[in-house]
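Re-running the complex after MR caught last week's input typo. The corrected sequence lines follow. Everything else is unchanged.
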Amino acid sequence: MSIITNLTRMWLTRSLSTFTFTDQYDETLDFSDCENLGLYVHIPFCKSICSFCPYCKEIFNKEKLNRYTDALIKEIHMVGGQYKEKKKVTSLYFGGGTPALAADRLDEIIGAINDHFIVTEGIGVELHPDNVRPPILKKLKDAGVDRISIGIQSFLGKYIDVLGRKSIDPESLRQSLSEVPFETVSMDFIFALPGQTFDDLKYDINKAFEIGANHVSIYPFIDFSFTESPVTEMPKKKKRALMDSITGYLNEKGYCRSSIWTFSSDEDAKYSSMTRESFLGFGCSATTLLRDQFKINTFSVEDYCRRINSNTLATSLTDRFVKRQRMVYYLFWTAYSTRVSIDDFERFFGVKLNKVYGFEIWIAKLMGFITEENGILSLTMKGAFYFHYYEKYYTLSYIDKMWGLMRKEAFPRKMKL
Ligand SMILES: C[S@@+](CC[C@H](N)C(=O)[O-])C[C@H]1O[C@@H](n2cnc3c(N)ncnc32)[C@H](O)[C@@H]1O
Ligand code: SF4
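Corrected-run output:
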C-alpha cells in the first residue's frame, strides 16, 4: 500500500525526503497573509460510537463537554488574538463527533470566532440524524449556522444494520427541514458497501433530494486498521462501475459535481471543509495547514484541556514543508474540488504550475484524467475516479497511520510518513 504513496511522494516532491512530523511546535501561527483561509472546529463527543468510524471522538459526558468547550474558546482566543486586525476567512465548519451536542454553547464558540475573524462564506455544522429536530435546528440557526450536513449513510435497513446504526425516518427529517430551512442541506452517504447496487444508491440519493437536501456527499467506505468494523470493501472493478453509474446518473439529472465526493442540485449549495488552500483547526485532532507547515492537535480530550489551560497550544505533531512538499499538499487539497486554477497556483507560489509540473500535466491530459479550459484544470470522470481511488491509498498510508498512533499517544515525539 505505502509503496504507491511513497513512489508518488518521491516523484512529485523530486526528493527522497519523507513527510516528517515532530513534536516541535510553534506557539504563534503565521496565518496573517493566508488568502482563502478556512476555519474548522472539532467537537469530539457522540451519544454512541459507530464501529466503522475513524474520527476522534468519545462517549458524550456533559461535564466533560463543558470543560472541553471552555478550553476550545480559550484556544480560539489564543490563536485568533495573535493579530490585532480581524482576519477575513472564507467559511467556518463544525465537525465531529457530533457537534450538535454542543448546540447550547455554539453561539459562545461562534462569538469567540467573530472576535478575531470575519467569516465571509457561511457557517456549517455536521449533524447526526437524531439532531434533526426543530428545537436543535432553531438553536443552530439562531447562532448563525446556514449550512448543515446530516450523516445518513443509507436509508435502507440492510446497510444501516451492516453499519450498526439506527434506522432513519425520512418523513420526520422532511418535516423538521421544512420547518427550519437552511441554505445548504447536505446528506452524507457511504458507498461501496458490500452488495450495494446502483439502484440502492440511486434510491438513497433520490430520497435525500426529495426530503429537502440540495447537496449530497458520497464517501467510499474505508476500512481503517484501528476500527473494528465487520464491513469489508467492495472490489475495485465493481466500485468503479458503481461510481461511474451514479456520476452519470447525477449528471443526467443536471446536478453539478462540486467536489470529488459531492453533488448539488443548486449551484449555490456548498458544503466542504476540505477544499481549502489553507485552514486553521481548533479542538482535539483538528489540523491546520499554513504556508509553511501542517500541524495536528492531540487526540486526547484531557491532554487538550490541560495544555490549553496552562496557556500552551495543544499541537501534537508538526510537519514543516520544503516548497515542493507544499506544492503537493496544495494540489492534493485543491484537487478535491475537481478543479485547479493555474493562476491561483502561481499567486500562491510565485511560479508557473506548468514550469514545475508541466510533464505531469501533459501525461494526465494524455491519459484522459484532466482537461484544461480558460486557465482551469478539471478532472474528467475517469480522473475523478482515480483521484478517489488514489485517495484511499493516501488515507490508508498516511491518515490511518497517523490517527492510529495519535489515538494511542497524546504527544508522540516523531512520525515519518
Ligand atoms: C463525523 S461523521 C457525520 C456526523 C455524525 N457524527 C453522524 O455520524 O451522523 C462524518 C461522515 O464521515 C463518513 N464516514 C465515517 N466513517 C467512514 C468510513 N469508515 N468510510 C467512509 N466514510 C466514513 C460518514 O458518512 C459520516 O457521516
Ligand atoms: S459516525 Fe458519527 S456518530 Fe458515529 S462515531 Fe463517528 S462521529 Fe460519532
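None of the earlier attempt is carried over here. The chain has a mean pLDDT of 90. Residues 46, 52-55, 95-96, 98, 126, 128, 151, 153, 188, 190, 219, 221-222, 224 surround S-adenosylmethionine (ligand 1) (CB under 6 Å).
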